[in-house]
Structures are given as structure tokens and as C-alpha cells.
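Q: Protein A?
A:
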Amino acid sequence: MRYSSLVDRLYNDGAAGWDVHMAAWRAQARGEDVIVLSVGDPDFDTPAPIVDAAVDALRSGDTHYGPIIGRPELRAAVAADMSARTGLSLGGENVMICAGTQNGLLAAAMCLLDAGDEVIGLDPMYLTYQSTLGVTGADIVRVAQPAAGGFRPDAAAIEAAVTARTRAVVITTPNNPTGVAMTRAELEAIAEIALRHDLWVVSDEVYSDVIFEGEHVSIASLDGMAERTVTVGSLSKSHAMTGWRCGWAVAPVSLVRHFDALQVNVNYGIPGFVQAAALAALTEYREAFRPMVDAYKRRRDLAAQVLADAPDLPVLVPDAGMYLLADVRAHTDSVRRFVRELFDATGVSVIDASAFGDSCRGWIRLSFTLSDDALVDGCTRLVDFLKSR
């Protein structure tokens, strides 16, 4: 049987980066002694009052179709939240409610890109971006953010990558996997490029609440950028709601209308009880994320402290997020093999960070989405493994 060429564009080399994680997940399900440092799923439960809001909605019969692009009250709450962050004057008409950030990115790609267009992506990038953007037939031009420069954006390299076919730049701040949060000056440099070349910017800001020092800056807040920026976000990381699949895209009204037409043919809306939970999280329980972020910061520092005892293991301490990168080039010429050997020997799963792009070749990504004790145990096993080699 023949399949659409689209299915081939859904696969890329990054998918293999999950092999050890999936093996760890299966071993954990069998009750084996494993420590999973390979996934960014918060170990916290969704705060109980947010769950209650969904249960109350279900019990009141909120199980029917609703507005495809999202309920007005939730769209208004997202708009108010982002207006407060950015100083922009946004309304619900600027917001699409969608099935998580991933769905928002796909909607942006489908409504902005055509086959033959180019979209600039900053490497490293989340490993599904290649497929999410490429499904449109657009070509992804990866611009390195090298380890030698702290994985920070290089405006000159971005400018050099622009061609007559360039349609958009996709950024992630704070970044997964590096934890780098872009500064205002770095974002201003990217904004200048977008304005000069009449480009869209798609900004993934799902980790914007999980920031440890300083304040998050949205590129949409910069002069002239609101009308050419799609900002995608969700409550998945901030409020431990990964499984709820509720996110948003904030964009110019004209683009949101196209999102609406697309979603008629994709999701046909997000369940009302899920939106009830999201509304509670964004309004009554907006600050519920703070204790979790405090815990992530403490775990970041714990992990860095333990790993400092390892021989020849440079560590990038993140500005934000749930991950830490470590450079294992002194210990192996194949990180994929190293990750497998580490798991087989110690039961600790980490990710070969090259799955996120060549800029991370030679590095591993560890998550700190588990208890302090388990994190210290996992990092200690990694240190002992390195000392034994």
C-alpha cells in the first residue's frame, strides 16, 4: 500500500533519541530499579483546586461541543495574562485555545508556511520542530547556537541565513534543552532581523513561568513585533498539566481567524471541562506554579553540586526550565552508545542531546522532574559510572 509523502516528513533522526527513555519507561513499569532523568514531565500533581474545577464542570454536564477556537472566557483570560506580561493591549480575539503548545506550533506552521518556503530554526530546538514545521513542505534552515557561546543566539548567523525564500524565524525562550532564557538585547536583535526582512516570528514560551533568575521577555512586546509574532504557550510545565493538553497561540486577529478555520478540520475544539481547569489555573490559581519552580531551582542546584564531583564533566547550569546539559565528550566518541551503556550499567536514563540538534553533539540532557532524593541518587550513579570508566 502507498502512503502520503507527508508521513515521511513526520520522522527524523531525533526520534531515535527517545530509545533509551522508552526502555527505561518499560523497565520502570516492570518495577525495576531505574531512575528516569530523560523526560520533562513534572512529578507534581496538578493542584487539587484546578482538578476540582474540571470535575465540577463534568458533573454539571460540560461534555458537549463548544466554540472551536476556545471559550470566550478562557481566551480573554489568556489575553489578559499576556497583556500583563508584555504591556500589549490584547483581547480574546487574539487567542486560539488548542491542544497544547505542540498543536499551536502546528497551526502556526500550517497557516504561515508553504512548500518551498524556508523557516529559520535556532539549533538546538525541541526535537519535534523539524517534523512539525516540515510537514508543510517548508525547508527548515537550522542556525547553530554553539556550545562554545553558551548556546546563546547569534544574530549575525541568523541574518546570514535569511534568503528570499525565508518566511519565519522560530525561537524557544526559555529553551529546551539548554535552559537558556534570551535577554531583551538578544530578542531585540532578532526582532530587527524580522522587521528588516518582513518575517514572522513564532515564539515558543511554554517555559516562561519556570524561570529562576530575572524576568521573562516576550519578543511580541518589542516595538513593531506584535503584528508579526505568534506566541505559543500552555500550563503544561508551570501548573503540572502536561496530560490535560490545553495550550494557546496568541497572534494578530487576522491570523487567529485562519487558526479557527484550520481547527474546524483538526481538533474541532478542546473539551469544555479541560478549559474550565485551565481557566481556574490562569485566574484563581495563577500563582500555584511558584512552589514548583522553587523546587526545580533547588533541584537544579542539587544536580549541579553532585555532578561537580565527576571527572571532566562540564555542566551548563540553566537559566530556566527542567533540564541540565552535561558535556561527555571527554568520556566517549558516541553519546548514543554512552547513554545506552549508562542505562545498562546503572539504570539511569538520560537523553543524547544531539537529538535536539548538532549544536548539542557530545552532550547529554538530564531532567530534574523527580524527587530530590531520586535526583541525587541518579546523578551520583552517573558520577560513579564516569569514575569507573
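Q: Protein B?
A:
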Amino acid sequence: MNAEAIFYASEALLPEISRDLSLQQLQNTASLPDIVSPVIAMPDAHQGYGVPVGGVLATHNLISAGAVGMDINCGVRLLVSQLTYDPEKFNITRLHQLINQLEHLIPIGLGGRHKHNPINFDLKEITGQGSQYLAKKGLATPQDIEHTEEYGCLDGANYHGLSERAVIRARDELGTLGSGNHFIDILKVVEIFDTDLAQKWHLFENQICVMIHSGSRALGHQTCLDYLKLFNQVAPSYGISFPNRELAALPLTSKEAQAYFGAMKACVNFAFANRQLMTYFVRNVFQKNFQDELPLLYDVAHNIAKWEVHHGQKMLVHRKGATRALPAGHPQNPKSYLETGHPAIVPGSMGTASYVLVGLPKNAQTFHSVNHGAGRRMSRTQAKKTIREDEFKQKMGETINNKPFYRIADEAPQAYKDIDQVVETLTEIGLTKKVVKLLPLAVINGE
């Protein structure tokens, strides 16, 4: 190995990480050239494509398409209302109505296409400007931009680095949820751990919130496939080798790596805009029903590679299923969160708790990164084979969901690790601090 490999797990989570190939993948990742020590696996880590999901690595002059992953800039945002949970106002009938209204405006599932976009979009502009393009069109507020990682746009995006197939697949997918573990949740705040921070961030007990989890859809998937193939083809000419083709990487000085980096940034910007446009539709529903504005608390990316400064050095940090969590005083925080550190949004699995955290200075040892969710403990195939419908319903409790069990069995709560244990792992050792805990009232899941 060319770097230390470190994984974070509590005693309860240790058996989970040894069930699959996560640790082998972590070791393989640490064998890449030009790697900065350490290579890290978060407590939610599980087997992924090349690099374990929940992996963090940094390089000086190397980029790996596999270390970013297929769903480029899959990420999550939390919208916060001024509404207080009332069981009469948010009864079963009302929650079903809200889900139906949201699903009418936001296509879900594999291949979902949009029919309700408020304006005609220029894909080149979207991939170049991200959420900032939507702000110019009146579909994002200045606060939305400030409260999005990288202000909703990575500079240096290259539309021309996207293949024709990627562009074709992306048509009409802006403002769509997608499939798999992508979701929109209506939640309530059930526990406050840090009263001071909660007040500063305008969070309160029984507050109604909405969480959106989605990414770059087919654009990111196709782009990753295109460049994995290219990287594997040309790597020998640069004298680069890697443990397996899924870890394909090239020096950033190469034209192929530069092409990927620009195309990846285009996908990142598309994903920021995608979550922003869904926010526009969610706000329409809440304004119609409750006259509430739903301001954005924060939006964080999970799958991304970007230049950052750590330990006094400029590094290309790859996060694959990990969340940036800058502590208070870090200069890359937006102005509104400079004093506190920005919120780190950590969703749980369907029907379970989610958290808002804040990074602490000690998390410099993880390149200011924390876990991005609960993390799988079962493959999709295993979940479909082993989880029974009655078990699923028992776990979901009173959480409203419109989908039949057979269409979402692979996303059942039992297929994931215990989110409370995962979050506590980094909290106990002083890398993060819990601010609030939320529980879902209703969920819309990708299929």
C-alpha cells in the first residue's frame, strides 16, 4: 500500500464492515499511486464500485473516476419550515395528499422525464452554472445559493467533455428524483442536542422539514461509464497501474484526466440544479397548502472530487458516499455559517431517523468529512429475497409511503445499518456534534 488505510466503526458496527469486500476495496484504494495518507472508510462504509461507498481519499495529481462513482454529486438538502407538527393538520389523509401533489410535479423512478418544467432549459448553461443559472431565472434565491456547497457551481465545467449519449440521456431529467435510494421525505424534528446551534439555525422541536436526496441522474452515470472505459484504455501509456479496472485513475496532467474533470464538474452542476429545481416544486406545494416558504438550511454533495486545502497543502479530495463537514471558523464556510460551521445533513434509511450534525476541528483527520447516511448491510438482491412485507411494515410504523412493497423492498430499513449507531461512532470520538434528530412522517422513494 502507498498510504495508511483507516476505517471508523464502533464495536456494534465492526461485524457489518467485514460482511463484504469493503476492507479489501479500502486496501486496494490505498495502493493507488500519488495517494495522500490516510485513505478513509466512514462508519457507513459498504462495498461499492472500486472504492467502498463511504470512502474518502486525497491525491496531489491523480483523479479516479471510480473514486467519485456513478452518481456524480448525489447529495442531500434540508428545507426547513415555520410549521409545527400537528397530528390533525398532518394526518394520514393530508400526508397522502402532499405526496400525490409532489409526485405530480416531480417524476420519480428510472427514466423519469419532466413534463412540468416552468421554463425551457439550456443544458450547456445548466452544466456550466448549476444552481446559479436557476437563480438568474428566478427559481433559486440568493440564500439558496449561499447555502449550497460550492455555492451550487463548480468552476471549470466542460460541456464538450460529455458524450452525445450522456447528453441524450439527460434530456428532460432536470428536476427529477430518480431511482434507488433517492427520496423526498417530509419529517419532523424530534430531538434537539445543541440548543444554541439549533436556535442559530432556526430549528425547533416538532418543526416540519423536507429532505431531498438525488444526484445527476443518467448524465452522471453515463459520464462515469464513458471515462472508466477511456481511463482503462490509456492508463498503460502513462505508466499507471491500479489493482482493478474499477479504480481507473490518471494523472491530472493528462488530457484524458482533464476531460473527465471538466465533464465531472458539468455533472456536479447539473445535480445541484436538479435538487434546486425539485426544491422549487416542493415549495410550490407547501406554499399552496400552508403558505410556507421552506428556506434551505444547507445542501451537501456525497460523490465528488474537488481541490481543497488540508494540513497546509492543496489536495484533490475524492468523496464517495461521504459528506463534507467544515467546523466553525473554517474559511470555506459560507458567511452565514462561518461562526458555527455549516450544517452536515445525514439522512437515515427509509422510515428511520435523520440527523443534522456539525463538524468539529478534530475532523481535520478525515479531510473534514463525515458519513453520508446509514450505509447498506444487505445487497439489493439479498434484501428482496430475505425481507418480508410484514417485517417491512412493522419497521416503517406510521410513516406514510405510496409505493407497494415489491417495488421498494431493496430500500427497506432492514437493508441498512442502524443510523443511530453510525452517527454516534463519529460523535463519541469528537469528530462531529449532533444538533437535531428528525423522523419521517411521509416518504417518496425512487423505484
